Amino acid sequence: MNDVDINEFIKKSPKAELHLHIEGTLEPEQMFALGKRNNIQIPFKNINEVKKAYNFNNLESFLKIYYEGSKVLIKEKDFFELTWAYALKCKEDNIVHAEIFFDPQTHTSRGISFDIVINGIYKALKKAENELGLSFKIIMCFLRHLNEDDCFKILDQAIAHKDKIFGVGLDSSEIGNPPKKFQNLFKNATENDFVTVAHAGEEGPPEYIWEALNLLNVKRIDHGVQCLKDEKLVAKLSNDQIPLTVCPLSNIKLRIFDKLNEHNLKKMLDKKLMVTINSDDPAYFGGYLNQNLIETQAALNLSFEDIKTLLINSFKSSFLNEEMKKEWITKI
Ligand code: HPA
Ligand code: ZN
């Protein structure tokens, strides 16, 4: 099969997205419109200036701009519109199931109530479920640069919305904020029936992936690309088929790898790891899910079989029930 046909296959196949920060879908145009509507100053004169600022050296330099951009989100309607815009992208990319992160502490620290954030996101996803046939799970991420006490307070708020929030995760500045810092928090979250995941091994060492598995009881590792530095870890991830939600365009923008053709995803596939492709923060990293798949296929010369495996893995790695997983996989 040639690359043109593989691209058609990518576009047409049903797929799941498992690593997507809803705040990372805020397009510059929408940032300007919301800034104006809510009377919030943003540190850019025009959309071109915003796009120029999206030139990152590492995770930290991205996070600074990403948290700045989030300040235009004030009302429930803003969170609703943000999420609805992503649901329409799902339709475009043939994403039939999405597991979406949100970062409440980014908003509650600015005086926005937890209820406003979760209700806006949830209502948009329910509308997408009804009108577009999109199934979804919501995963609340703790900001790991904050202390565990702050995170316990936000967990209490999440418990009040347990009917809407499926799981908890861990994001923000990785280096210096190891998973072990949140061992008690994740134990408590598990006792409250939240499924757990964590960003680990994006910039941080393989040790952080071990900690996420052993101390936070995670069912999935977000990113995990640093795992290849540790053979024992690769054996464990491969034996247990622990899903890794890899985000190739994000990894290039944040300089985890210099170029897409130097990305280690093909090596991960060859080691029989349970890898999936995702878009992370598509408004900041230059592409939604299909773009990630298409560019990665071309750069790494992935075969039709590799692509098929990645799409099947997206469902296998999801938190859908076994019946739904099977149903989608037979349609690929
Ligand atoms: N890593 C850590 N924190 C994040 C990311 C990421 O890729 N995206 C949004 N918050
Ligand atoms: Zn992420």
Task: Give a verbal description of the structure.
The chain has 332 residues and is an alpha/beta fold. The protein has one domain (3-331): Metal-dependent hydrolases (TIM Barrel), CATH 3.20.20. Helices cover 52% and strands 14% of the residues. The chain contains 17 helices and 8 strands. Strands 1-2-3-4-5-6-7-8 form an 8-stranded parallel beta sheet. Helix 1 runs antiparallel to helix 15, helix 5 runs parallel beside helix 7 (114-132) and helix 16 runs antiparallel to helix 17 (322-330). The longest helix is centred in the middle third of the chain and has 19 residues, at 114-132. It is globular and about 50 Å long. The chain starts with a helix and ends with a helix. The relative contact order is 0.14. The mean pLDDT is 98. The structure holds hypoxanthine (HPA) and zinc ion (ZN). The site of hypoxanthine (HPA) has 10 residues, from loops.
